[in-house]
Amino acid sequence: MKKLMVALGLLSLAGGAFAAGKPCEELKSEIAAKLDAKGVPGYSLEIVDKGANADGKVVGSCEGGAKEIIYKK
Fold this sequence. Notes:
By secondary structure, this protein is an alpha+beta fold. The protein has one domain (21-72). 45% of the residues lie in helices and 25% in strands. It contains two helices and three strands; from the N terminus they run H-H-E-E-E. The chain has a three-stranded antiparallel sheet with strand order 1-3-2, covered by helices on one side. Strand 2 (57-62) and strand 3 (67-72) form a beta hairpin. The termini are far apart.
């Protein structure tokens, strides 16, 4: 029973960390690195509030889903 409670506690801590989401600048850097590695020229990445009317394609979500990263060519 004690092991079960410890396991449930660890799962809830991990779930909270995942729900918090990744910081936007960190995710933006990771996406840029992948695009650069593939040799994609002339793009921009912009961080906007979720649901904001922005031209481009949503390529990531950050800060617990509060913001999105928009790709523009």
